Amino acid sequence: MTETQSQFLTENNIVIGLKAKTQFEAISQLSKVLERNGNISDAEAFTKDVLARESMTTTGIGNNIAIPHGKSASVTNASLVFAKNEYPLDWDSLDGSKVNIIFLMAVSSGDAGNEHLRMLAKLSGRLMDDDFVAAIKSENDPKKILEIFNQK
């Protein structure tokens, strides 16, 4: 990813061993990570905004991966959380797979769409690379995961 992409993901926003039992729990717990790290001001409001977006169409893209995202007034800093959940979750994925790799994107509702689309495009491009996907699925050290993300 480019230097621009790396600013969206920091080591503090990498969660290994998330213990969510449902899609709602995963989004809620990851929203709290964003709030704790100063990326959003209100985890509950952000969770509601993400769930409203989820109700439109699934963000389970297949291959055990989901990219939930939301535009919200509570976002203070566009960012991304990467998480590995301990349990496969039902996510209504396009390929029917359960999800245990989650990328939660947070974008300010004041953003005209550019930041959100740029983040999503870069992430989607990386997720088409089988080697990248295999690397993030097999690695559990946050520092090394960040290195994988920052590789060109």
Explain this structure:
- The chain has 152 residues and is α/β, with parallel strands linked by helices.
- The protein has a single domain (3-150), classed as Mannitol-specific EII, Chain A, CATH 3.40.930.10.
- The protein is built from 6 helices and 6 strands.
- Strands 1, 2, 3, 4, 5 and 6 form a 6-stranded mixed β-sheet that branches.
- Strand 2 and strand 3 (65-66) form a beta hairpin.
- Helix 2 (23-36) runs antiparallel to helix 3.
- It is globular.
- The relative contact order is 0.21.
- Mean pLDDT is 90; it is low at 1-6.
Quick structural summary:
The chain is of the alpha/beta class. Helix content is 41%, strand content 23%. It is globular.
Secondary-structure topology with pairs:
Layout (H helix, E strand, L loop, with lengths): L2 H4 L7 E5 L4 H14 L6 H12 L5 E3 L2 E2 L2 E4 L6 E11 L9 E10 L5 H14 L2 H9 L3 H9 L2
Parallel strand pairs: 1-5, 3-6, 4-6
Antiparallel strand pairs: 2-3, 5-6
Helix pairs in contact: 2-3
**Shape, per Cα inertia axes:** globular
Number of helices: 6
Instruction: Quote the distance from N terminus to C terminus.
Output: 5 Å
Topology order in helix (H) and strand (E) letters: HEHHEEEEEHHH
Gyration radius over CA = 14 Å
Number of β-strand runs: 6
Q: Which CATH class? A: Alpha Beta
CATH superfamily: Mannitol-specific EII, Chain A
Based on helices, strands and strand pairing, what is the structural class?
Answer: alpha/beta
Arithmetic mean pLDDT:
90
Strand residues, percent: 15-25%
CATH architecture: 3-Layer(aba) Sandwich
Helix content: 40-55%
The tally of structural domains comes to 1
